[in-house]
Known about the structure:
single chain; 386 residues; alpha+beta; 4-stranded antiparallel beta sheet; 16% helix
Amino acid sequence: MPNAQIRSVKSTEGVNRPKRLPSKMRRLGLSLLAVIVLGVIVFLLVPSPIEPVKWLAPTAPSLEETGPWKLNNKLSAAQLVTDAPKSPEFITFDKDGQLFTGDSDGKIYKVPFDAEGNPQKAQVFADTKGTPNGLKFDANGNLIVTDIKKGLLSINPSGSIEVLANQVDGKPIYLANELDIAKDGSIYFSDTSNYGRVTFREIAENKPHGRLLKYDPMTKQSTVLLEGLYFANGVALSADEDFVLVAESYHYQLTRYWLKGSKKGTSDIFSNNLAGFPDNITRDEQGRFWVGIFTTRLSFVDQMHSNPWLAGIMAKLPESLLSGASAPAKHGLAAEFSPQGELIGSWHDPEGSLFGITTAASHNGYLYIGTAPGGSLGVHRVLLTK
């Protein structure tokens, strides 16, 4: 019996048994878990900085099926015009056909073309010390600029800058964004949001903070034409100037404000349920409207709109995380509309070499493409042959 017991003891030698963590490490792990759980509880209990409004966004149009939004590669062969401006938000041309565009650092560039239409080296035309977005030449050759930091500006041919308006009705113009100029010199422009900056929290909140404004060069006064817009963005007059369009980026629609006729002073929807966030609007010689789509629809944003609790939670996150979550999809997209609001066609770069598109401007047989921070860099163009 004693020998048997000895053999039994020996047979268990060398067997691996699970090792228990030292008590100090266990306590540390439990403490860390408790801190995390407590942090989550506090995060959930802290009031949200916004009170979101529920919105059931319409189902996004398919980019794969037949129809005007059908996927293609019309923008994939884009040619670089200049990379001097990194984020050329808007594009316009002077009477000599020179291209003008601004950059987010305040500089406005001029790009001449040779006799064959080839772009030459970009030159700095002016520096607003702000962020110039919309640009358009008036009848006197002055470049009228909407600068999101400075307001409505006029820059004469020598580059001198004058502030036309930075207030309306005694209140600030918070974020002057885009513009168009009527034949009588009246300037129609958007005041994007009284947030005064682009922030994901405004998307999550889903409340209208934007306005459409008019500047009268005779009285030198600005007036509010339309308010309660969901991120007022691009602006364009119709060929007959009987209405002006303004893009409501956060509701995927173009709104029409009537300037003449029986509907004067009223507004309606020109086109809705776009396949992305509309940015700037330009009008070509045929009276058609071109719209840059900064990003295709973001499914999580539409889902968030249907759930105010989730939107409120999202708004608590650091702005750096929110901005990353709402970065533009790497899919270039621009849309063409008839004067009546019918979607004629769409232009894509599904490969994402060209993306974050803000402007599509038709000029001399080319479609010129501008972008904003977060998108691809530089001014590009593609032939308008379809």
